[in-house]
Amino acid sequence: MPLAILGLLLLGRDPLLRSSLTTMAAVATAVLVLVMLSVVRSSRFGVWSMGFWYLVILALFHLGLAIPLGFGYSGAGVNSAYVTSWFGRHSFRVEATYLATLATAAVGAGYTALASSRRVETSSKPTRFGSEGPIGAALTVGGTALTVVYLALTNTAALTGISRMKFVETASSVGVETIGALSVALGALLLATAQASRTRTLGMIAVVVFGSWALSTGARSLIMYTAVAMLLVAIRLRPLPKRRVALGVGAFGLVCVSLVGFYRVDGLARAQIGADALNPLAAITEMGGSIRPLIENLNYNHRLDEEPLWGITYVATIIRTGERLAGLPRAGALQDPRVPGSEIVQRVDTYQIGYSAVAEAYRNWRTPGVVLVFGLFGFILRRIDSSDRQDTARLLASGVIFLALIQHVRQPSNQELPILLTGLLLALGLSIIGPVSRRRRNEENAGLPSTERAVFISGPSTRAAGPVTTDNYLSPSDLPTLGS
Question: Can you give the residue ranges of every domain in the chain?
Answer without folding.
Answer: 2-124+280-427, 450-483
